[in-house]
Amino acid sequence: EKGRGSFEHYGLWLDRPLDRHKWFFSISQIDAFVLNRAARDGFGVVERFAAEKPKAGLLRAARQLRYPGERYQNRYCQTYWAVLAPATAA
């Protein structure tokens, strides 16, 4: 179902696999990727959020009730933003 789970052959790994040419991933996967890579490479995550296309408040509220939490973001958010800083400054 859209917004839940992951695909067997697609995703976002900490290290690039040798045999992948397409990258399909969810907001949950990109968030985990950013947090893990930042920690591994000596950065702190100052801020992170996912953005979606503007929709009427009632429609957005109904969608959030039907698909709570992570499922909503994976289903409707299209852009992920993260601000990183060197670990000493974070």
Descriptive report:
The protein has helices spanning 27-40, 57-66, 70-76, and strands spanning 43-52, 77-86. It has 90 residues and is of the alpha+beta class. It is built from 3 helices and 2 strands, in the order αβααβ. The protein has a two-stranded antiparallel sheet. The chain is globular and about 40 Å long. 34% of the residues lie in helices and 22% in strands. The longest helix has 14 residues, at 27-40. The protein has a domain at 27-86.
Fold topology:
Layout: H1 27-40, E1 43-52, H2 57-66, H3 70-76, E2 77-86
Antiparallel strand pairs: 1-2
Please give a handful of descriptors for the protein shown.
90 residues; alpha+beta; two-stranded antiparallel sheet; 3 helices
**Low-pLDDT segments, ≥5 res:** none
Number of helices: 3
State the shape. Answer: globular
Chain-averaged pLDDT: 84
Oligomeric state of this protein: single chain
Structural class: alpha+beta
Spatial ordering of strands, largest sheet: 1-2
Question: Biggest sheet: strands, sense, closure?
Answer: 2 strands, antiparallel
- DSSP strand count: 2
Terminal-residue CA separation: 37 Å
Helix content range: 25-40%
Question: Measured on Cα atoms, how large is the radius of gyration?
Answer: 15 Å
Percentage of residues in strands: 15-25%
Order of secondary-structure elements:
HEHHE
